[in-house]
Write a structure and sequence with these properties.
Layout (H helix, E strand, L loop, with lengths): L10 E2 L3 E5 L5 H8 L3 H4 L10 H13 L3 E8 L5 E8 L7 E9 L8 H15 L4 E7 L3 H10 L2 E11 L5 E10 L3 H9 L1
Parallel strand pairs: 5-6
Antiparallel strand pairs: 1-2, 2-3, 3-4, 4-5, 6-8, 7-8
Helix pairs in contact: 1-3
């Protein structure tokens, strides 16, 4: 049996609230990272140059059946600063992927990414998944280090996995966290 994607929910802790992504989030999201080539450097779409372009990208995630997108809303300001998704992993039993994640530069190197991953990983395992998959561009060392910090174990690299928006080929690095590994990583992150 292939695992099914979770249903959209609101997840929150003292740092962020993850809520189902809607077009109402687009103005905040564009202010946080629209038009910023560095924010969008590793994503599968070029940096949007207008709220309308960002809305089209968001609508593509909202309407497809392979992602459950969440707006990342800062608890302090109530404003969306990025998004993240659960993604379908066809062929992997009881697995779910966390990906298509970006945050505005203002929250880079803060508690936001860790807070989001704690919510998403906890929720996935509470729902009965036994493995969480995370992947990134082989050149995106910042993301690879962040994934390793939360407990992701390198599982392999798919060469020439897909084309980047600039037409070059992306090698994709895969990381996984198993349900039995998570309590130790979770405890370490809580400390």
């Amino acid at each position: 049996m292939t695992a099914k994607l979770p249903t959209p929910v609101v997840l929150e802790n003292d740092v962020v609230r993850l809520e189902p992504l809607t077009l109402a989030h687009v103005p905040d999201l564009f202010a946080a990272g629209g038009g910023d080539d560095e924010v969008w450097r590793w994503l599968g779409a070029p940096a949007p140059r207008s709220e309308q372009e960002l809305g089209k990208i968001a609508l593509g995630l909202i309407d497809d059946d392979k992602h459950i997108p969440f707006a990342v809303v800062l608890k302090g300001s109530g404003r969306a600063t990025g998004w993240t998704t659960y993604a379908d992993v066809p062929g992997f039993n009881e697995s779910v992927e966390i990906g298509w994640t970006w945050y505005g530069r203002a929250v880079w190197r803060t508690a936001v990414n860790t807070a989001c991953k704690l919510l998403l990983i906890d929720h996935a395992f509470e729902l009965g998944y036994n493995r969480v998959l995370l992947k990134t561009d082989v050149l995106n060392l910042r993301s690879q280090n962040a994934i390793k910090r939360i407990g992701g174990l390198h599982e392999g690299t798919l060469r020439r996995h897909r084309k980047r928006p600039d037409g070059t080929w992306r090698d994709t690095v895969y990381f996984g966290i198993l349900i039995e590994e998570w309590p130790e990583h979770r405890a370490r992150l809580d400390r």
